[in-house]
Amino acid sequence: MIKVAGSTFAFGDLSLQDSCAILRDMGFKYADIGASGWSLFQEWVPQQVVQNIDDPKREGEKILQVTSDHGLEIAELFICDFGHANNHPDPDKQSETLEKYTKMAKIAQVAGFKSLMMLPGDVHNAEHPWAGDLGQTFEQAFEVAVSQHKAMVEIAGEHDLEHNIEACIFSVAHEPKNALRLLDAVPGLALTLDYAHQVQLNLDQDEIEPLHAHARHVQAKQSAPGEFQAKPDEGVIDFGRVINKMKADNFDGFISVEFVSSPEVLEKGWDLREESARLKQILDDAIEA
Questions:
Q1: Domains of the chain: residue spans and CATH
Q2: What is the pTM of this model?
Q3: Of residues 196, 257, 261, the one with CA closest to residue 5
Q4: DSSP for 33-54?
């Protein structure tokens, strides 16, 4: 069954209580939760629901209490990274990722999450716009990403969780062929699929749909080439077609409305609640059709 979730991190740097209240008032029953306030992308997704990563029982219970109080069932914990790519060339940073990921898995297990979402990893060379030029080749970056994600799949499984990656922009898995290669190299790894990233490669839906076979979770934001986020009725993604594909695949999971409060959309005066509500309506209508 396809279930429509909202994202607590879609509305900027709000508390979990305030963002859960927004989702409840919008009619959501399920929620992806934001824990990416320390990530490389904190300007866009600043919400950090974890205050003390070393106290997993208390942190997990707090998340569960807040979501339960607002009538929301928990879906995925949206982490991204821990301030550096998981496949950073520095072995100490690689170890730090796995140590923090283990602590987050403990929190997620207590709270009752289904999955954790991390980014695939970057290529730290001169072509990357923010990772920094550390002389890392694509193959070196890919090899470390495989090792890191194998470890995270194992850690997640030890905590009754699933480990997903988002085949995101500028990552080692941005292009579908590389995403499929990474998935093939890491048994148990699956996708949190977000078309918006592949739209930036000027791919059409025919070229993105093969990724559905590996999707365990789906994120929904409208997009267009050169515009990472577009208003729900203005972009190029046909969400009716997306939902029909999910139905045909007997997808049993969540599709989560996931606009983010990027500087660009805030400067344009977007009301993220209004746009999220409109996209929720589009998804609900397609599911019911």
A1: 2-288 (3.20.20.150)
A2: 0.96
A3: 257
A4: EEB-TTSTTTTTS--B--S-TT
